[in-house]
Design goal:
Order of helices and strands: HHEHEHEEEHEHEEE
Distance between the termini: 36 Å
Oligomer: single chain
Strand content: 25-35%
Helix content: 25-40%
Shape: globular
Structural class: alpha/beta
Length: 223
């Protein structure tokens, strides 16, 4: 599937009607979502025929993109049941088989064991930026690096790179990632969703990161 075609499909998806500020719910726009998954597939082969999990999936944009690019199976996880209802409708509209799970990603009970079988090859996510709850984005990353066997793709504000506890250091030192690299910088259009927003739309620079999980870990299966 071509990039423009993928972006067109994602542009037709339903998004949040009543976003929850405490969850930092912002829709992942079709421009950024299509490029994120297209890059994961065409530059690294991390989507097609893989099991892909969309952490904090919201209305399912990243998961839908993964399914459209030929993922073997897609799992969307979110704490908000109303978002999952919209995500399910989006998947149904495109006749995609996506498994949506209502859970708190931070308390995900998937652990590394010596038993058989991987659960997830690739995790994709647009985590909370951590502006409402400091460190929320790192909580997501910590779990993603435990679960993924192949790669984690995540969006983080570009300004985060300059902070002392920036993303790379957290990933490599705290979460034992094998590698952490910025693949590209993208423009994230945040629409005026909440009353405290002064402008109709804010353009935020975000980095698309690719993390490789620890190589010495065992494969994952349900606990």
């Amino acid at each position: 599937m071509k990039l423009k075609q993928l972006e067109s499909f994602l542009g037709d998806l339903q998004q949040f009607s009543n976003p929850k500020v405490e969850l930092e719910q912002y829709p992942t726009g079709p421009h950024i979502a299509s490029r994120m998954l297209y890059t994961a597939e065409n530059s690294f082969g991390d989507v097609s025929n893989k099991v892909v999990a969309d952490f904090g999936c919201g209305c399912g944009t990243l998961g839908v993109a993964a399914a459209l690019l030929g993922a073997e199976h897609v799992i969307g996880l979110d704490i908000d049941p109303q978002s999952l209802e919209i995500a399910s409708l989006n998947a149904e509209d495109l006749e995609l088989d996506i498994n949506f799970v209502h859970c708190d990603v931070k308390n995900l009970g998937w652990r590394v064991t010596s038993d058989t079988g991987r659960i997830v090859d690739t995790v994709v996510m647009n985590p909370p930026f951590g502006t409402r709850k400091k460190g929320a984005d790192m909580d997501f990353l910590a779990v993603a690096l435990k679960v993924a066997s192949q790669a984690v793709y995540s969006l983080h504000k570009s300004s985060t790179r300059d902070l002392p506890e920036h993303v790379r250091k957290a990933a490599l030192r705290n979460f034992n990632a094998s590698s952490a690299e910025v693949i590209c910088e993208l423009r994230y259009d945040v629409p005026q969703l909440y009353k405290f927003h002064k402008k109709k739309e804010v353009d935020i620079a975000v980095d698309l990161w690719r993390f490789v999980p620890p190589k010495d870990k065992l494969e994952v299966h349900h606990s």
